[in-house]
Amino acid sequence: MHQHDGPLARLRQGHETLVLDLLRRHGPLTRAGLGTHTGLSRTTLYDIVGGLVTAGAVVTAPPEATARRRGRPVETLSLNPAAGLAIGIDFARRAVHVAAVNVAHEVVGSASEQHPAGLSWDRRIALARRLVGTLAGGSLRLDPVTGIGAGLVGPVGLPALGGPGPAADPGPWEAAGTAEAVRDRLAEAFGVPVHVDNNTRLAALAESVWGAATGSRDVLYLRLSHGVGGGLVVGGALHGGAHGLSGELGHITVDPAGGPCDCGGRGCLETVASVGAVLDAYRAAGGRAADIAGFTAAARDGDAVAAGVLRAVGSQVGGVLAAVCNAVGPGVVVVGGELAEAGDLLLGPVRETLSARVLPLARSLLDLRRAALGEYGGALGGIALVLHASPLLAHYPARPEPGPRPQERPGARLQDHQPHDRTEPEESP
Amino acid sequence: MHQHDGPLARLRQGHETLVLDLLRRHGPLTRAGLGTHTGLSRTTLYDIVGGLVTAGAVVTAPPEATARRRGRPVETLSLNPAAGLAIGIDFARRAVHVAAVNVAHEVVGSASEQHPAGLSWDRRIALARRLVGTLAGGSLRLDPVTGIGAGLVGPVGLPALGGPGPAADPGPWEAAGTAEAVRDRLAEAFGVPVHVDNNTRLAALAESVWGAATGSRDVLYLRLSHGVGGGLVVGGALHGGAHGLSGELGHITVDPAGGPCDCGGRGCLETVASVGAVLDAYRAAGGRAADIAGFTAAARDGDAVAAGVLRAVGSQVGGVLAAVCNAVGPGVVVVGGELAEAGDLLLGPVRETLSARVLPLARSLLDLRRAALGEYGGALGGIALVLHASPLLAHYPARPEPGPRPQERPGARLQDHQPHDRTEPEESP
Known about the structure:
Number of domains of chain A: 3
Family (chains A, B): Belongs to the ROK (NagC/XylR) family.
Region (Disordered) (chains A, B): 396-429
Pfam family, one (chains A, B): ROK
Number of strands of chain A: 13
Helix content of chain A: 25-40%
Structural class of chain A: alpha/beta
Radius of gyration of chain A: 23 Å
CATH architecture of the largest domain in chain A: 2-Layer Sandwich
Distance between the termini of chain A: 27 Å
InterPro entries (chains A, B): ATPase_NBD (IPR043129), ROK (IPR000600), ROK_cs (IPR049874), WH-like_DNA-bd_sf (IPR036388), WH_DNA-bd_sf (IPR036390)
Number of helices of chain A: 12
Largest interface: A-B, 73 and 73 residues
Strand content of chain A: 15-25%
Protein name (chains A, B): Transcriptional regulator
Oligomer: homodimer
Strand order of the largest sheet of chain A: 6-5-4-7-8
Largest sheet of chain A: 5 strands, mixed
CATH superfamily of the largest domain in chain A: ATPase, nucleotide binding domain
């Protein structure tokens, strides 16, 4: 997309956005009507509209009888309902999740498949293609797809690091540079523009657009899963940070003298609040659970040992969230991942420590919620990323705009993705 | 400014920005030239240009001989060099600082005056008016002033909190709601639009535009002064947070069992890293210094006790910065305030702990710098806030744009504001 970054391309894209936004808000309009509303010259407008018709984003409607003036038929323009599909793909550690929306932002379909850890990128991309092919009863055509937003595990946007030493070792993450390679491979496989980001950050974006934090423009999201990660939505947009390493809440130190972390650090939040760390702590205290679902079930059934573990973890989580809240001042804090299935047994202690350590002036403004989108968060976030980047689908507001009107959101279509009990561990981040 | 927030006003402002930006980049242009470059219709363009000429932002130049075509003189349009002044005012605890730039973003002048703590707002605003009157040798006219950006101590943007209880007690800060009242009073006193924000956050913005972090779009700023505060610049814009409480790095807990803080919390960074806390620690260890300047001078002269205090403080500061860096991923971290005058005696230990606790992948990307703008940071940040908000002065880039070109910055004119030794304590935040 780099060739689209120049000032003239931006100006043209601004004009396209203007036209598409008017058609979305007002419904069908004539070229003259578009001219009046946009202030664009006749030449510019015909050029822009011509491009949009060629791209399939806009269709010309047959002239209506009432629109004829002086006997000359006047063509109206409207959004092409068949155009503007956006696809989200989440490449989690051991599963691929896909979802798609149409130009009206209705979810056309979603699909998921588990796979063994360490599957090659060739096979993961082939799996994604196959899953996308199953959407909408197999009737999904790729040629009107506006873009794909893909979520990956690990850092995205980080420059490839050369040389020896710890900085060159990506540890448990995908190697730096993977994101760019995957983006290029996807673009080749699907033949459409592809945007990539970290899948936990995408889940944060999805929660802010369609999930627990709908309508809030400043959201802090924490995911407590096999790994611990997070994401920040700032002013309605996903915050990537200068080097693609934002949202790494799992690697904030909670105990400088604590145990080693997979990241190469010591005493990180992930060493005490990941699914593995929680199960270890539970078993060390005499508890018995085959997996995290068993653990949260035991906690909900009144197991005091499990509740004690959740209290200790919740306090550590609350301390980290308080530090970040003081720095960033989010409107809503969302906690997701398998551990959040424990509900208030976890969120109660989180809220208590968060409230105690956040700036007293901010206490009454705290808004802590459980994530709402479950395992499709990453894929839906990929769609949101496409909506941000594409004027063809960008109902998602530009910065100075107020939030989208509730009736424009596909919330009702997303109820299928509410969290539910699972027997299989979730795969990301 | 609320009446300027509608979609049509935004569209018009977008057109104005387009025209002004072209005149800034290309120099004088004819209306025909502007039409070609902007794609705006003749009607829209004449309307926009007419408004800009009436507002005094654009002037018509006499037709040049070479510009005549078919004997008809063609008027050219250019930016009015006399227009577009922006004024920054920092209302610190015991001083008022003012600065002004013209439409070319040259600093026209700056002035400062100390005053007793607790001076009434009437007198502080009168002092600000008098100081502004001294700028540019007293020749500054207020009628071309585009806007004023003012910095205040304490939260800005926080809804007024009612009811009893700790949340209603603003502690050492100005009461919630003060910012709005001061903004209205300033608008009345100066007769121009006024933008307000927290003065430490404004200093963060100024460092990102003209100071230590020039050119970076993601900046974390920490100020170690009589209070400890901070600010975040995200994607080139000042981050306010959902409730105006972002950047409160001084109230991140460093020791849950620590001493009480003025904010009502316990063990906050401010309880160990403020000027007062550092002097207390130094004196408790047997050191003797009349004030913070004496302390930093002693440290630089090889006083081992002072260096030990700075090491301990630096480690706590580094830990807090690491947590925020992991969450936010800034490109540059800037440390300012009187304690930063100790230079590497403080920044060395800060860097050491920051590097140890930041995500290992991010270590090689760390960029820690000492603040460059000194006591005028808040006032210059106020100017940057006006530049952001006003199309008349907005060379400061909109989000998708690259940073301003170095030669467009008034950096050379700001050298007077580099940090220098002071015998008087600084007044903010």
